[in-house]
Specification:
This protein is mainly α. It is about 65% helix and about 5% strand. The chain is elongated and about 120 Å long.
Length: about 950
Amino acid sequence: MVVLTNAISVLDTAKALVPLDTAKGVLSTLSSILTVVKNTMQNKEDFAEIANRCNQIAKSIERSTCGGSTSEINPRITEILDELKSFVDGIEKTLKEKEQRALTERAFSASVDQGSIAKWKEQLDFFLQRYNVRTLSNKTMRFYSIHPHPQNELIVHIAVTFSDEPDREPPPARPPMFFGRDTLVQDAVESLNSQHVVLVGPGGIGKSSVAKAILNEDSIVARFSDRRFFVRFDDINASQVTFDMFIGRIAGTLGVRSNRRSITTFLGASNILLVFDNAETFQDAASGADRIAEVIEEFGALPTVTIMFTTRNRRVPMNLQCTIIDVPALEPNAARNAFTHTYHTDGFPAIIDKLLSDLDFHPLSINILAHVARENQWTLEELMRSWEGQHTRLLDVGDGKLQSLSVTIELSLTSSSIKQLGVHARHVMQVAAFLPQGLNERDIERLFPTVPNIHSIVDALCRLSLMYRKKDAYTMLSPIRLHISSAHKDDIIPSVDLTHVRAYYYKQLAQVNDEDDGGAWITTEDANLERLLAHDLSHVTRMDMGFICLACCQFIRQLRQHKRRPTSLRPVILGLPEGNPRPTRFFGFFKYNPQPYSWNGGTDSKAGCAFVLAYLAVDLTNITESVDLFATAKRLFICNQRHDLTAWCLENMALQYTWLGKISAAEDALQDTLTMRREHHILSSDDEARINLYLGGAMICRGRLEETRVLLTRARQHFEDVNNTTDLSLTMELQGEVELRSGNYLAARHHFEARFLLPTVMSNVIGRTWNLIYLSVVEAREGNLSEAQKLLEEASALASGGKDVFTACFVLLSQVSLTSDEGDFDTARDILRRVFVEVAARGGQAELALATYYSARNELFAQDYQKARDIFSRALEYSAELSDMLDQVKCVRALGEIALLEKDFTSANMQFAKAKSLCDETGMHPDFLYNGLDHSRLKASHEGWKLFLEGRLPSSCPLPSLR
């Protein structure tokens, strides 16, 4: 009570002396606050420190405003008084409400919780600190005006030293564009409750944005109020930083005098959050780095101070307990939101996702690219073309680090930390930029056998965020890789620098065989090896070409076995010179090869690469590409007089022609195969049986079922005799199709069930899946739709999650077909959405064309003819791009059926005539238009095609039977 009474007395005395009305109002409010506490509050003792602060503030206000006219008082004092008035009015309001409630409830007493009292005390401390600084400044200026001479120079020095301190910098606002970082922000906020925090990541990853978002979190604002400070070091480089500059930056942000003592006093007054942005700048300071680290430790040791760093390296003061939080690239969805927030588009999401993936979802690169696209008003297709042609130039649109990828990366590359690592660091970065999957951690010494302390160098590059660890490899973000590969292309790896990298990968490649699993390592380093092969194929001399092509063939074989995917090798392979190269020891490749290869690389070289690449295209259902590659290989094999391999190319071309519905071309290729093998005496009984098998497949589409039965029976007998279960499996599949088309469902089921017993089918998931599909077709033709669906569910369980995207999609589309047949069109649409998601993620043009056809079929069955027509037209375009004549005919026929249903007989006749012309061109029998082993058939009620073939489709008037 004594403390409260004395404080009220001091406030009332000061109120009578100060000239400013605002000052009188502040002091009057403070007096009112303490009076309410004295008369009403139960916990008066808790307000003792508040009373002491009020006493000090009264004296400070009196010192800063008394003894002169109102006009002489520093305007900044008035500004601070206004702020203080607003704050203490809030306290008074809270207390009077509690007082009124107490009186109303006849309790005559109230209390305030300790948390509120502590916050009020902190705020009063803050204002007291500001008044003390301003008072000193104001008194200095008055001293100068009273004593202008004779000590003129001394007075000027004092006035400059204690002139008004700069205003403190307010905390930055939350970034207006901020996506996908909520969890990261919350993690950092929780860590700040107990420790200092370090946000680590490469340039442009968004560390500063995350820090600004943290500063504006509600819990952080409540805890630190306006004592949240953001000290920037992003506008200078390390060579400019000194200890005095560092102290000056902090002082300028806090609004205090530029010396260590003033800063420490301010920081120790109450809880404060201090953010050091771009901390790597002062960590690599040209001078005073040790003193800077020491003073940071001193500040961080204060119980009132919480520090957060944003930095590109993981180096922090040793004596600070810090939680290190890595700031990763954006998640795909967040990256897409960030991109489309700036660049609004209704285009295909797949194109956006491809662009963002190329950028490794790097926030700065995404922002720059989106602004470039918007400013140029590009379509997505134009943006993609520009990106593929220009890459890093699109990411350098200004001089600052927020407008240029090069600027932000060069800040790291020119740091003293990089220079201290020596010339080897630049070489390691160049190799890491060259290899898209990074440096294998396990074998890093073998990649750099001449680089001393390779692990120390890589660790340092990771600490500086120029590289990062991804599983068992050290790699780079794509934007950093692009910059190093382009901006430093004059230093980029000449051939001699790849010697050890080449030795490592070619030895790995030469030591594996197709028969075993020795090439499983390719699943993690396939892109690295592909990049190396593309480089070597582009720079190889004629005399070395044979051996590099052997390495290329072995790579593609391993890729087919372990990781089927497209490659970028086709253009460099087709660009190789032709002729008969002279074999030499290319890069010592045969030194690593324990076994000879299956054919002479010096002779076949380019042809061999095209041949194995064609097989990969078949695996990926890139049928048109496979035909082109087989044709290229065939031409080169003929030049080199490799008749056996020429015949293999013809046979494979025939299989792909049959797939595409080009039946005449398939038969011609098979007849050429027979002729060539006979002329050159290389026609074995195996060859003859296999050709008969392939001819049988073509004849089914011709409608010549009896001839097909004879050929397949003969082929099956041979394959059974020699125990060739692979070709026997295909023979039984075609026999089942013949019986299916003939309506002999029992016989068809027998062939497919017998096929299950073959070892090649039993041990092969894909083989079993297709067999289940074939059996489901038999059940559906017999009208057992529920049994067919059960078989497809079993097939789907086998195919889901597998490597064969086409098979997985085909199973789902078969389910779509049966669901449509049952009239459940909405469920069919739901399944189709799943298919299109899978196609967008992993599929290609063949899967897209097929899915589009089944989508159109569903809408046709649902009688949405306009929508069905649009989708069939789109499927027709996709099929034409693939040169798939079979699917083209099916789409055109369906368009004719829609026209007929809409009573447009002219259009119906035109579409059916076009379909018939395509059948004649390709050699397909019109009655056998639909492949017997799928669920693509239209309904029996769609009889326009049959009427047209029979000449019964009118040209201008409706048929009574169709009304």
